[in-house]
Amino acid sequence: MGSKLHFQSIKHGPPLPHHDDIRAYKREYAAALDEKDPLRRFRAEFIIPSKKDLLRKNLSESEGDDQSDPRCIYLCGNSLGLQPRNIRKYIDQYLRSWAIKGVTGHFVSHEDALLPPYLHVDDAGSKLLAPIVGASPSEVALMGTLTGNLHILMSSFYRPTTERYKIILEGKAFPSDHYAVESQIRLHNLNPATAMVLIEPEDTERPILSTEQILKVIDDNASDTALVLLPGIQYYTGQYFDIPQITAHAHSKGILIGWDCAHAVGNVELKLHDWEVDFAAWCHYKYVNSGPGAMAGLFVHEKHGKVNGSSTNGEDDAYRPRLAGWWGHDKATRFQMDNNFVPQEGAAGYQISNPSVLDLSAVASSLEIFNQASMPALRQKSLQLTGYLEHLLLKYPLDNHADDRNKKLSFSIITPANPAERGAQLSILLQPGLLDKVLEILEENGVVIDERKPNVVRVAPAPLYNTFTDVWEFHRVFVMACREAVAARDG
Ligand SMILES: Cc1ncc(COP(=O)(O)O)c(C=O)c1O
């Protein structure tokens, strides 16, 4: 059915329905796209909450996985990803090995184990993580939490001098990033009023930052800036920044640059090594589906991870000073306990504590699925899903998502229209006075998205588990919700 329809092929784009082909707006069209989706088997790897379970007031009645109940429309992977089914296998193995081996679980491997003994789970985690962010395994580490890791990295990469002491970040940065930068500046007895350079959007309703604007702020502060910290994808607008160009520009001015990839990891195809990013940090509870507050990840470019194999008491020129702990110590001599810190090469040398194997098992379970699917294939599907969502929102020909009185759309999309400048998320700005009613109707219909008050909803089809039919269903309910919200507002 779908194959008989016309397609417009656009660069990076989805197989968009031809504008005047009304069949393209039918559910069958979305179902036909799902049929042809080469990644469709991955949906079954996740537990999609049922509508009934979303309303449930107790946990014990159900395991939440009775497939006869209709599933919700979950488009909130930008906030909290869904649970991979194989997480139980990983966590059961962890519980079992701890139960039967106690401390010897650190060293003893099992023939059927998904992960190596506890002593080496960090290496296994790095191998799984590296292809997802375009790094070599020695450039990444699974550890800690996002904001904690930003502090750890900034304590090493932000070493202000009297000449270079500023940090450039966006004015609308995620609060935790803002606080982290501000507190780092204060820790060095500097004043955020002079040392913190905020890139402010020209349009506060649609706070997109052009690459030109970012480069200009870097130029204007080139001589006294020590560090730039930006998001790979902006949490509010969904804008995907030009990481390679901005990184190269910062470097050309002698400035280090770090990227917060919370909304980019598992979403777009990152090439952190090739782009020569100095450092990056991210969490794994959004697109990477590892559970609320899951263990985070960091990247340190190989040029910054070099060590010469000796202790750091002044003789190692290659070594970048950092906050150290025993897990960053060279594995071969870690247990000699001689209090001579010999760092591991690469990102592993930034580890501080021994990793929680429970937490790492959760992240590994999801990374295993990502590696099966591969980021290029996921990005390809993501471009199609998000393009389809945008197409339905903006081109739906029946015009019944318009405010009937003035025939104006009751919303606009603030995320960039260029698919290369966004990931899976579209941020929709509603007309004033509509948000509460729209959210109420979406919830009643089992649609899960998130909002940023006063007027924005963020909708994120995640290519691992979302379908074109999910997008179609969302659009159907959203159209109805907007219409009812306009009617309620205008009496
Ligand atoms: C861009 C960004 N930075 C920082 C954080 C804070 O993360 P955490 O609480 O894991 O440190 C988040 C959380 O969503 C985020 O989206």
UniProtKB/TrEMBL annotation:
SUPFAM superfamilies recorded for this chain? Answer: PLP-dependent transferases
The cofactors it requires, by name, are: pyridoxal 5'-phosphate
Gene3D superfamilies (UniProt xref): Aspartate Aminotransferase, domain 1, Type I PLP-dependent aspartate aminotransferase-like (Major domain)
Which EC number(s) are documented for this chain?
Answer: 3.7.1.3
Q: Does the keyword Nucleotide-binding apply?
A: no
Any Gene Ontology CC annotation: cytoplasm
Major location (coarse): cytoplasm
State its location(s).
Cytoplasm
The protein's superkingdom reads Eukaryota
User: Any idea which positions bind pyridoxal 5'-phosphate?
Assistant: L146, T147, F174, P175, S176, D177, D260, H263, Y285, W326, N354
Biological process (GO) annotations?
A: 'de novo' NAD+ biosynthetic process from L-tryptophan; anthranilate metabolic process; L-kynurenine catabolic process; L-tryptophan catabolic process to kynurenine; quinolinate biosynthetic process
**InterPro entries for the chain:** Aminotrans_V_dom, Kynureninase, PyrdxlP-dep_Trfase, PyrdxlP-dep_Trfase_major, PyrdxlP-dep_Trfase_small
Give, as in the UniProt entry, the pathway in which the protein acts: Cofactor biosynthesis; NAD(+) biosynthesis; quinolinate from L-kynurenine: step 2/3; Amino-acid degradation; L-kynurenine degradation; L-alanine and anthranilate from L-kynurenine: step 1/1
GO molecular function list: kynureninase activity; pyridoxal phosphate binding
**Catalytic activities:** 3-hydroxy-L-kynurenine + H2O = 3-hydroxyanthranilate + L-alanine + H(+); L-kynurenine + H2O = anthranilate + L-alanine + H(+)
The protein's enzyme class: hydrolase
- Identify residues that carry N6-(pyridoxal phosphate)lysine: K286
Q: Which residues form the Aminotransferase class V domain?
A: 209-286
Q: Write the record's keywords in alphabetical order, separated by commas.
A: Cytoplasm, Hydrolase, Pyridine nucleotide biosynthesis, Pyridoxal phosphate
Oligomer and partners: Homodimer.
Spell out the family assignment given in the record's similarity comment: Belongs to the kynureninase family.
* Purpose of the protein: Catalyzes the cleavage of L-kynurenine (L-Kyn) and L-3-hydroxykynurenine (L-3OHKyn) into anthranilic acid (AA) and 3-hydroxyanthranilic acid (3-OHAA), respectively.
Q: What's the protein here called?
A: Kynureninase
Gene source species: Talaromyces atroroseus
Which taxonomic lineage does the organism of this UniProt entry have? Eukaryota, Fungi, Dikarya, Ascomycota, Pezizomycotina
